[in-house]
Structure formats: structure tokens, C-alpha cells
Amino acid sequence: MRRFSIFSLLVTVTLLLIIFSCRKQDEISHNTGLKLSFSADSVVFDTVFSSIGSATQKLMIYNKNKERLNISSIRLGNGSASAFRMNIDGISGEELYDIEIPGNDSLFVFLRVTIDPRAINNPFVVEEDLFFETNNNQQSVKLVAWGQDAVYVLADQYIRGFPPFKIVADSLETTIWTAEKPYVVYGYALINSYGTLRIEAGTRIYFHDKSGLWSYSEGQLIVAGTAEQPVLFRGDRLESREGLDFRNVPGQWDRIWLMEARAGADHQISHAIIRNGYIGVQAESFLKPTAAALRIDNTIIENHTGIGLFSRLFAIDAKNLVIANCGAYNMALTGGGDYRFLHTTVANNWNYSVRNNPAIFFNNFLLDSLENPIAIPFQFEMGNSIVYGSNREEFNYEFAAGADTSYRFENCLVKTERRLSNWPGFVNSIANKDPLFKDYENFNYRPDTLSPVIGKGKLEFALEVPLDLDGVSRTESSDLGAYQFVPGNR
What we know:
Blueprint (H helix, E strand, L loop, with lengths): L1 H25 L10 E2 L3 E4 L7 E11 L5 E8 L7 E5 L2 E3 L1 E7 L3 E11 L9 E10 L2 E10 L4 E4 L10 E5 L4 E4 L5 E4 L1 E4 L4 E5 L3 E4 L4 E4 L4 E5 L6 E5 L4 E2 L2 E2 L9 E4 L8 E4 L1 E4 L3 E6 L9 E11 L2 E20 L2 E20 L11 E4 L1 E3 L5 E3 L2 E6 L2 E4 L5 E4 L6 E6 L2 E2 L11 E2 L2 E2 L5 E3 L4 E4 L11 H6 L26
Parallel strand pairs: 2-10, 11-14, 12-15, 13-16, 14-17, 15-18, 16-19, 17-20, 18-23, 19-24, 20-25, 23-26, 24-27, 25-27, 26-28, 27-28, 28-29, 29-30, 29-33, 29-34, 30-35, 33-36, 34-37, 36-38, 37-39
Antiparallel strand pairs: 1-3, 3-8, 4-7, 4-9, 5-6, 5-8, 9-10, 21-22, 31-32, 40-41
């Protein structure tokens, strides 16, 4: 009898444990510390359609917890206006409710997008979030699709310490981008060492958020625009929203990043418009001192939240250059180097935030591991140019002793509190006169009728750059800056 009782007790306890365990697994947990996992943080539809079409992708939802979870809501961020559709276990909709997922189990989400790539009103990148709510926790997965027919450059390599990138010109390879279709860059387009990317006249390049163009050490960038067909670099947002025109919104992409060039392979940017990024062009000796230069002409760099032209220990030769409206510096030339600017207009009327920095800044040193300055030779020359903005002082520098260092502004108009007669770095230059640009707000930096820059240029410099940025001759009477005054001109 006693043996039977013990046996019955053991059986009962075992059954209770099994029942309790099953119930525990079947119970829905309300623990706010439990979250879902996903097969990816972004779902990218990277098919380029030639006509109205659709594509389907799969997303996996994982419950890596022991407890069963109830997903109270899965919804598309744009609701009924979304270009995307979802299907879970045969149920479709813009928002689905109360979907249970057992512990250590998974669900399939099938996502579909339908787009007409011929619609020029579409953005290049159609993007929204797929939201999940579980136990008051909000999680999301990004949905990304291409909205227009274009060449899409999608980052596919990830190295710690560097931005995501895709190699577009590999070593010993020359890649040519043409004007046939626009290019949309998602991540960084990389020119590898000893590779060359040549961008032909009229090409349009649109960068997604945090994206850019990157020439790695000893790679080469050649931008070969013309006066009639400049090359355009800008953000990929084309729409206007609530009165906000994204054509004039800064900070939409990252930068053009040029590392040291190899001997005989100068970086070249001719007839380009570079707008609305964080940094327009960054040219730096990254792994070793550059053996070549950046040659830039007939180019507009404008409306960047950080710096228009940033360099570190580089050589830059610039002609007919406009650098305008930047949130930190228009031009920051650091770590030494060799620089020459002719017929350059540096203008800064930034009004998106407070700007405490001057339009132009340079220094002649780098810092060692103990933050001590290491002086490096620095030469800077600017001729027939304008440096003007809304700050009282638009030029400053910081020099360390121990390296040959010089700067010279000749036949320039400069906004500065310095008394120019006491500064040998200024020759035949004008201080603090408003250049009277045509239209600051609409980025028109041509001189107006009464501008003090008219006829103040040095002929020797003008003969090196005989045509202005509009193709107007300046060899008879030269004005300062990138544009000649033309009566009645726009």
C-alpha cells in the first residue's frame, strides 16, 4: 500500500510538472524586457524595373525567448498611402493585430512593393518603416525600394571603422559614369587604389542620407563637366513637403572624400555643382603625404552643414570656384599644404543656425599622440577673389613655429577686422566692403551694378583664367571673384 502511494505521488508530481511546463510555454508573456529579433534591419528591393512592376522580399521575425509573445501590432509607416504591402500567414493589410509567436519560433513576413519607375515625381529612393509593437515595445525595420529608373550603387561591403561601401572602380580599372541615366548612391561609392572613376559631362549623381563618393589612397577621381553640361552632385530627395523645398536643404548626404593621389594622377573636378551635403569636398593625406594635387575649376560648392572645402596636408589648385553658404567653414585648409586660388568667390550668409567660425580658416600643423603640434610647410595664395559673409571676421588662422609658412591675398576683397596696411599677407586688397551680390538667398553671387569688385582685378591673374564661370571674357577689365559683371545680366 505504501509503495503504491509513493508511486502514485511520483506520477502525480510528474504529470503536474508536465502540465505546468506546457501551460508556462503556452502562456503569453507580458514581460516588457522581451523583444523580437529580425533577419535584417533593412529590407531592400534592389531590382530596377523597366516598366510598372512589383517585387517581393521576405523578412523573418524571430522570438528567441522561451515564452510565447503576442505582437499586438505590425503596421506600415505610411499606412494606406504606402507603396509596400505585407502578408503574414496568408493575411494581408497595412496593419495587422494580435499575432502570436511561440517561444523559440519564427514567422515569415512577405513584403511587396509596386512602383512606376517612369514617374519623374517619384523620389529616387522610396523608404519607410515597418513598425512592430510587443508588450509596449516599439521596434522597426526599414523598407527601401528604388522609385525611378536610374543606376543604383548599393553598398555591399562593411569594414569596421569605415562607412559601408561598394567598389565602383577597382585597382587598375577605369570606370566611366555617363549622362544616360542618373546615379543614386546608397552608402559610399569607392574608387580603389590605382582605380579611376571618370564622370562625364551632364551626369547627375544623387546621394542618399549619409552616403558619398570616396577615392581611396592612390585612387583617382576625374569629373569632366562642361559649361553647357555641368556634373551635378546632390541629395536624392526631390520632393517639397509642407513648403520645404529639398533642393535647398543642406546636410542631405555626407561628402566627396579624396585621399592622397598618386604621382601623375591628380584628382580633377571641372564644371561641377556640389550641393546640400555635410562636407562638399574633403581632400586629405590619410595614409601618407599626397604625391599629386586636386585641380578644381568652374565649380560651385554650396549649402553644406559643415565645410565646403576641407583639406589636410594636400595640394589644391583652384580657378573660377564658388564656395558658399556653409554652417562651419567655407574653406578649412589644415595640416599644412600648398594652395592657390584664383577668381574664387567665398560667400557665407548661413542662416540655418548660429555660425561662429570664419569663412576661411587654415593652420600649418598636425597633432601627435600627445596633442603636441607638428609644424608642416604651408603656402597659400589667393588672387582676384572675394571672401565675404555675415560674420564680422571671415578669415583666421593658427600657425605653429618650425615650418616655412606664408599666405598672400592679392587683389582681393576680404571681410576682416584687421587693418590690412599692417598685414603683409594682404596686397592691394579691399577690407569690409559689401560686394553687392545679385541675390544672396537664391545663391546668385554675380556682382550687381554698384559692386566695389568691378574692375579691381589684376590682369596677370585674369589672363590665367580668361573666362568667368558663365563663359564671359575678363581679359580687358577684370572683376574680383568667379563672375564678371555684365550689365543687365541675371
